[in-house]
Amino acid sequence: MTTTSALTHLLKPMPPLEADTSIADVADRLLTPECKAFLSLPVVDGAGRPLGLISRYTLQDIFMMRFGRDLHGRKPVGEVMNAAPLVVSLETSLEEAAHTVTSQLHYPITEEFILVDAQGCYRGLGTVLDLLKAMEQRIAQRNAVLRKTLVDLKESQAQLVQSEKMASLGQMVAGVAHELNTPLGYVKNNVQLLRELKQPLLQLADTHGTLLDCLHAPDCDEARLSAALGEAIEAREQAAPELLKEDLQQLFGDTLYGLEQIGELVVGLKNFARLDRAMSEDIDLNDCVRSALVIARNNIKDKAEVISQLGDLPRIPCAPSQINQVLLNLFNNAAQAMEGFGRILVKTWADDGAVLISVQDSGKGMPPEVLAKIFDPFFTTKPVGQGTGLGLSISFKIIQDHGGSIRVASEPGRGTRFLIRLPRPQAPHLQESA
Ligand SMILES: Nc1ncnc2c1ncn2[C@@H]1O[C@H](COP(=O)(O)OP(=O)(O)O)[C@@H](O)[C@H]1O
Ligand SMILES: [Mg+2]
C-alpha cells in the first residue's frame, strides 16, 4: 500500500532487527554503511510491529564496560533496547507529528522516531531534524500564501473604496449636471430674447441716423425730411424704449444670476472633486460643508429643507476631498431617510480640542439592530442601485485616519444625528502639558 501522507518523504527505510538479535550482531550492523547516519536501530516483533529502539549510546556503554562484549554480547537486543520509543503513524499530519515528537523529545534534534503504517507495522525511521525542516518549509509556504492574501485584500479594499467613490462621484455628477441645466436653460432663453429685442433698437438707431443726416444736409427738401421723420417715429413706436428699459434690466439681471449660479456650481465641483487624497494644512471645514451641500443639493431639494448653522471654526489640517466624501454621504443618507418632506440641520462649532460637525435629520431613524451594523462594510438597507453599503464604513476609516471620531444617535420615527469630531492641532505648550 502506498501512502500520500506528508510524512512519507521523511521516511528512511532501515531494515529492522528482531528482538532476539544478539547485541554483538547489532554492534556489527551499526558499523555498516547504511546504518552509519543513524543513531539508533529499530527492533520489531515477528509481525513487523515496533518493539523498541536500540541506540548507539547504549551499545557504547555496554562495550565500554570491562569485559562488556564477552559478558553481554550474546544477550538479545530486546533486553537492552529502549522499549518506549517514539512511534508516529504515517497517517498523521505533519503538524500532529511535529507536536507528538517535540512534546516527547529527550535529546532534541538528535533523536529518531519510528514511522508505522495504518496497521501499526514498522515502515521506517524518521529524524527530528528532517521533521523540523519540513515544518519550517510548511510555515514558509503558509506565510507566502498569507502574504499574498494580505496583498489581495489590500487591493480589493482599495478597489472598494474607489468604487464607493465612483458611485458617489457618479451621483454627484448626475446631480450637478441637473443643477447646471436649469440656469443654463434660462440663460439661453434670455440671450435668445435679447437677440430678438436687438432688432427694433437697431432699426431705431438707423432711422434716427437718416433723420439727423437730413437735418444737417443743406439741400434736404421737405418731402425727404418728413419721410425720415415718419420712419423715425414709427421705429420709436416699434422699439418702445420705455418698456424695453425695464425688460432689459430684468433680462440682464436674470442672466447674470444664472451665470453666477453656474459659476458657484463649477467652483463647488472643483473644490469638491479634488480626487487626490492630499492633506492640506489649514482647511475651514465650513467650506467643505458648503461645497458638499452644493453638490448634494439636487438629491436633497425634493426631500428636505436644509438649515445650516455654521459657527466660526479654526482652520485644521485635513484632506478636504476625503471630508467632502464623508459629508456628501451623510447628506445623501439623510435625504434618503426622509419619508415625507423633512429637515436636515447642519451645525458646526469648535471647542478647545476639536472641530465638530453635526448632521441631524428628521428621517425615519434606525432600530437598534440596524444601528449596530451601519459602519460594517456592505451593510445597506437600500435596494440595489441605491446603496453600496460602503459609505459609512469608508467614512469611519477616513475620520479615524484623521485622528477623529464619528458617533451616531438615532430613534425610529424621529430621526438620526451623526456627530463628527476632528482634532484641532494643539499649541506646543499645550501638547507638552497634555
Ligand atoms: N441618516 C440615516 N437615517 C437612517 N438610516 C441611515 C442613515 N444613515 C445611514 N443609515 C443606514 O445605514 C446604512 C448604511 O449606510 P451607508 O454605509 O452610507 O451605505 P448606503 O447608504 O450605501 O446604504 C443605510 O443603508 C441605512 O440603513
Ligand atoms: Mg450612503
Structure description:
The chain has helices at residues 23-30, 56-64, 68-72, 94-104, 128-216, 222-239, 241-272, 285-300, 320-336, 368-371, 391-401, 428-433; strands at residues 17-18, 40-44, 50-55, 87-89, 112-116, 122-127, 280-283, 304-310, 316-318, 342-350, 354-361, 405-411, 415-423. The protein is α/β, with parallel strands linked by helices and 434 residues long. It folds into 3 domains: 8-120, CBS-domain, CATH 3.10.580.10; 164-259; 274-433, Heat Shock Protein 90. A hairpin with a 3-residue loop joins β10 and β11. α8 packs parallel to α9 (320-336) and α9 (320-336) runs antiparallel to α11. The longest helix is centred in the middle third of the chain and has 89 residues, at 128-216. The structure holds adenosine-5'-diphosphate (ADP) and magnesium ion. It is an enzyme of class 2 (transferase).
Largest sheet descriptor? 5 strands, mixed
Strand segment tally: 13
CATH topology of the largest domain: Heat Shock Protein 90
**Associated small molecules:** adenosine-5'-diphosphate, magnesium ion
Strand order within the widest sheet? 8-10-11-13-12
Number of DSSP helical runs? 12
CATH class of the largest domain: Alpha Beta
Low-pLDDT windows of residues: none
CATH architecture of the largest domain: 2-Layer Sandwich
CATH homologous superfamily (4th level) name of the largest domain: Histidine kinase-like ATPase, C-terminal domain
Kindly, what is the distance between the CA atoms of the first and last residues, rounded to a whole number of angstroms? 73 Å
Global structural class? alpha/beta
